[in-house]
Each structure stands twice: as structure tokens, then as C-alpha cells.
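Input record (one chain):
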Amino acid sequence: MKIAILSRNPRLYSTRRLVEAARQRGHEARVIDVLRCYMNITSHAPSIHYKGEGLSGFDAVIPRLGASVTFYGTAVLRQFEMMGVYPLNESVAITRARDKLRSLQLLSRKGIGLPITGFAHAPDDVEDLIKMVGGAPLVIKLLEGTQGIGVVLAETRQAAESVIEAFMGLEVNILIQEFIKEAQGADIRCFVVGEKVVAAMKRQAKDGEFRSNLHRGGTANLIRITPEERSTAVRAARIIGLNVAGVDILRSNHGPVVMEVNSSPGLEGIENATGKDIAGLVIDFIEKDFVVGKTRTRGKG
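The corresponding structure, as predicted from the sequence alone:
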């Protein structure tokens, strides 16, 4: 197969590993900077051009889209889909996952365990919003934040009111969530490929920090997950529409709760923690699932 990997940086660990895994299995893999793509949106003959040449002949496309390029990146991916190229993760599903509020609403509708979450627009509603999520301490998240950036733990009601009002004053959208104290600064990243959790790791925040992201100094270790956690991760990825996903789960007193479903999960942490060839499993899935023009969410918003 001829596989396009949409990535801004060919030197990134995840991108390099996917290229290696594809080539080891006899496929042709090419890294394409999504922001250098430009499109001819024509009826019956959609096309993509890249640095002065037309892109054609690809069988599959692996999107590795950073949060900052979601809008343009999913537009390019959609163009590949219109050209009949098989997408590992579809543009609609990536757009769903990147919208934290939308993804939580979708998961909630299907009964997936979630932390109590509030969303409001007017500062007048802050006091009731804080009560809604169980009071302080609570977590405040920017809707557009990634890798733990824009996530604040407010330990008192006064601190929560001040931070919420400050964010609202800047006219940014935020979520207010209950703080799962019993998680003790740890979460579980379940790496889903197809209908299976192929690997899982426990991420532990460093001392004095509640965010467990590896980019924030957290550590990762192999963990054995429960059947309920496994089922929750697989269902969450399926509901969002992702073939490959990193589902972040907290262990709460009332069972596993999903914090986020990531459409471009990094490979370095999970491969190092588990010793598994995750990139190879992703390519194996493409080989089995590949059908020209196959999309599950075509026409859906």
C-alpha cells in the first residue's frame, strides 16, 4: 500500500515509528506537511496539491494532526476522503474528539462514566455552577487546551470564583469539573486500536502537580486494567468514531470515568512503558480494515 502520514514534523517519534512500521511491512510511506497541502475543490474531480505537485495514488492516510492545525488539517483529510483514500481516523471523528464539550456530551448520551462537568456563559451563574460539580476543590479547563495546558486546580471556592470569572472576562470557553481526589494525581491511558485496548499505562503526576501528562513531568508505568476499564475505553473510542484513540481514564469511587478521548495519541510514552510495537499494530489494523473509500461517518456532523 501507499500510505500518506499527515504530520508537520517527520522527526517526531510517533511519525518516525509509523514510517518504520509501514516500511517494515513492505508499504510505501510518505510524510506530508498538512499545512503545505492545498486543494482543488471541484465536483467529480477533487484533488490535493503539495509543494507544486499533485498528490495521487495513495491507498490510506494516517492523520497526525496537532490541535493548533485541527481546522485546516481536517479539511485536508476530508479532501483525501473525497478522493477515496482510506482514513485511519476520519475527519468528522477527529473534529468531535477535539471539541471537549461535544465529545463529553456524546459520551454522556451513551452512558459512559464521566466526572461531573459544568459549562456556562454568564458570570452570574458561577456560584451555582460551582455547587453543581460538588464545590471546591474543582478543575477548570480551557476547551482548547492540550497536554495539560489551560487546566487549573482551584482548591477553594474563592479561588474557583476568581479563576472562572477571569477566564470568562477573557471570553474563552471553559469547562468546570469535579476533582477526583481518590485518583491521587494518576490516570490511565488506554491505547485503543480497532475494537481492542492493545496497551495501557498509568501516568503519575510529579510531586506537587495534579496533571499527569508526560509533557508536564509525569511518569508512566505498565498497568493491568479491569474489564470495566477496558470496555469503557473501547466504547468511548467507538462513540466518538475513532479507529485509533488514546482514552484517558481516572479511577474514581464510582468506577472508571473518562477524561478525554485523544485522536492523535503519542506513541513514545506507551511504547516505552509497555514495550509493545504499537506503531506496528496500527499498520496491521490498516491492512485488515482497508477498503477503498471506506468511511463510517460519511455525511454525519
